[in-house]
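Following up on my earlier thread - several people asked me to post the actual chain instead of describing it. Fair enough. Here it is, all 183 residues.
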Amino acid sequence: MSLNLLATAVQDAALIDAVGRVATAQTVMMVCMVLVLVLAIGAALLSYNTMKTLGRTLRALEKVIDELAPRAEPLIDGVTRVAVDASAITETVRRKSNDLLETVEDVNERLRELTDAAEKRVRQIGTVLDVVQAEAEELMLDAAATARGVHEAAHVLREPRRSSVRLPNRRAPTDLEKDDDEE
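Reply from S.P.:
Thanks for posting it. Predicted structure:
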């Protein structure tokens, strides 16, 4: 019997040890559950206080909005009018600048055409002046030659006659006469 008792006592000790471990685990779980419960209650209280504060803030904000709404309407209307006026002014400036640009382009094109026409006319006048100068030079040479001829004839007529047939003086031709002969 003593062996049975000893075996029972050993089994009871192992059983007591296992029951002690289960009890310890349950105690740790209970402490953890209490901590989680305390944290949940704390979070709920904090959320409640935050919600109350948020509610008060929203009510105060609604009150401020209600007070500012009548004052803000004229400001909003004024800003809207300014924006519309600015848009109209911008459109007018854009339109006028486009008109000015088109006018400048037209004037520029006309100036180019006038410049080309003036250049063409100047060339024509230059050609005419060249012809006139050539004609004037020829006329002057002819007049000089004629004057020389008249001068020679007068000289011959002034000299007393030595014979019935007179040959003109043979002398070196002048520069004007050389030019006549070359042409």
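The mean pLDDT is 84. That should answer part of your original question.
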